[in-house]
């Protein structure tokens, strides 16, 4: 069989010249014999003949799906529905598992005491995911089984292709078929009611991709690696800088902030301060300090007071005990030993899991350093805080702060009393507790 | 085919004769003339002045929508009229309106396909296009309604640094899955239906750029019978999937309301009522689009009066269903004996929004009643007026459901009256700009009629009538 170009009655020389031009004069090889038909009925009748002749690599071209042609061609039923069934079952499983894992396991979502996972509430999403998987699979499996997308095919160079996708019908028997014999095939098709027979040529070798596309491909591949490289760098390095804050949410509001100048206000009342100073000679409610020793725990010269500015009696110490229990004991412990529940927890965390965690334990109130502090300094610590401890001025009124200081003194006394100085009754009482 | 007597092909195919079947494509069209007509629109190098005028107007609307969205994001949702107690307002009204419009496209492409209603082939392509563009409009509104739009991805189950997941027991999340599945499946269905027609345009294209563009879109489709076999299998499966999908989508949209406890929302009638309303409004939109399109592009032989009449019958039927649902809501409110429910419905008809309620009833229930008469069903002006009234009425239906219920809940101390702002109005008008921009681009650049499908329902030509062997060489020049 000579598959090279040989001018024949149906090989139009102009067309072949065009093809050779188009393919840089490369050798042309016979691809198929194409027969044209005018009606769907004619092409169906012809299909039956080709089917009965036993060809395998052939197809009919019809501008629309012709019903009945599958039987005429002997096409086997497609496995597509089974693929879609598999995808649908996968979709249902994925949908259900996704909801179960995310709402009942990964992030247990308790809403109005409802069960973590209950089928009725999860049916809508399961259904949608099933449909989604099935539909996409139906589409892509259809393309895949049809070997699409295929942007090159010898048929596309057929000058009658525009008719075959409009109003004419064709049968294409490809040269690669085992039974292919050009004369016999042409004779078969001529006798099948065709209105025209043609041969279709294709370049013997597929043309090489132009060099410029290699360059584009390499550059594009490298370009896609750039963002990945940045992500990898961010993943494996440390940065001291805060994260980039693209969306400011409500961080940037046109509002007046304390301790910040605001140019708008200068025009309004000649001062850029957002909070106005009090009118001269006035004092705001709650800001009047009648007794500075009481309020600041300091003498006029700035040294700490060494005696209580309040009357110390049993009522004050009891009050101090109660307040101490509320505010101080969580860190310093009920007995002032510096081992309150916060300390116990933090120490445990620092020991077992605290990567990079530093914990400065609260002070033991009977330390010599604290024993030597004048009451004014204790008061100052309660008021303004020290090191990790925050100030309690906002939470505890002045009198209660002094009550706490009085109770701390009581705790210190209890912690430092020698055992020998206790009476037998006192020892017995302590041991019975 | 041969067992059925096909009636003589004339211009009027609206009459019914029990002895035969009316032609769906009139005026002696052939396969070739269908291709010429449909591809001619896409291939015409001239720009139609009417198309250009409409496109400029639509583009203006789209521009307004985008500017308003930028304004909204930069400023905050306070630019809308939404405020307690009516936190949903127009954005959600517009969302339900547009997503409902979309449903007719899927009904035509999927449900009528399964029911073997051959007349669907003339209108399914642009009804599906309408679906997708309506869903684009619909998806915009909840997207921008979330407030902090840059966090809208929280709607999807994406692993994140907070180790948190969305709540899958919320109807709002079902909605995310339903609408996004609907949008993507409709797009796949539409695109797959278009591949053979795009291949036809590719094969006819002369300009290399056109050949490249349509060639890429056609994915190398060659109209071969073995591919058609799998294609038809896939098409049937997609139709079978899209049918329950379209019903589920508006059912789930109705769950957004029905699963809540609010009087006027908390009713089991919502799913079927919403689906019927969606099909009703969607068909009205198809008529609104089909009538001018078929006149402008000379498609009167393909989208015949019979097609329009069939759609008007669907509008009449679904309009009656919607009317029945309105009546049944009142009946159940009374029969259920719940005083809050009773108040909600009496308030709808006689309260501060009574005007919206009666616009809804007169547009949706009364106006389609003219379609009992064939003269009205086959009159272009009447059907245009009714279709537009139905579009208006269905928007008001969503307004009535959303706003009247929210504005009057259990405690009078929390009652309020919703007023839209100019931004609300601008966004609704702008969404029509988005819709028509997409639709006009579709008409200009893609095959508006499913050529391959229309050809399957035409009368098959007889072999004897065929012409002589054509001159092959002639096609080379």
From TrEMBL, chain A:
Domain Cytochrome c: 315-412
UniProt name for this protein: Cytochrome c
InterPro entries with a match to the protein in the record: ActD (IPR021776), Cyt_c-like_dom (IPR009056), Cyt_c-like_dom_sf (IPR036909)
GO molecular function, one term: electron transfer activity
UniProt-listed Pfam families: ActD (PF11821), Cytochrome_CBB3 (PF13442)
Transmembrane segments: 79-101, 121-152, 212-232
Annotated keywords: Heme, Iron, Membrane, Metal-binding, Transmembrane, Transmembrane helix
Keyword Transmembrane helix: yes
Organism whose genome encodes this protein: Rohdeia mirabilis
Domain of life per record: Bacteria
Automatic annotation (TrEMBL), chain B:
Matches recorded under Pfam families: NrfD
Entry GO terms, CC: plasma membrane
Annotated keywords: Cell membrane, Membrane, Transmembrane, Transmembrane helix
Domain of life: Bacteria
Location relative to the cell: Cell membrane
Keyword rRNA processing applies: no
Keyword Transmembrane: yes
Membrane topology: Multi-pass membrane protein
TM regions (residue ranges): 51-75, 95-115, 127-151, 171-192, 234-253, 273-293, 314-335, 355-373, 380-401, 421-443
Main localization category: membrane
Similarity annotation: Belongs to the NrfD family.
Protein name: Polysulfide reductase, NrfD
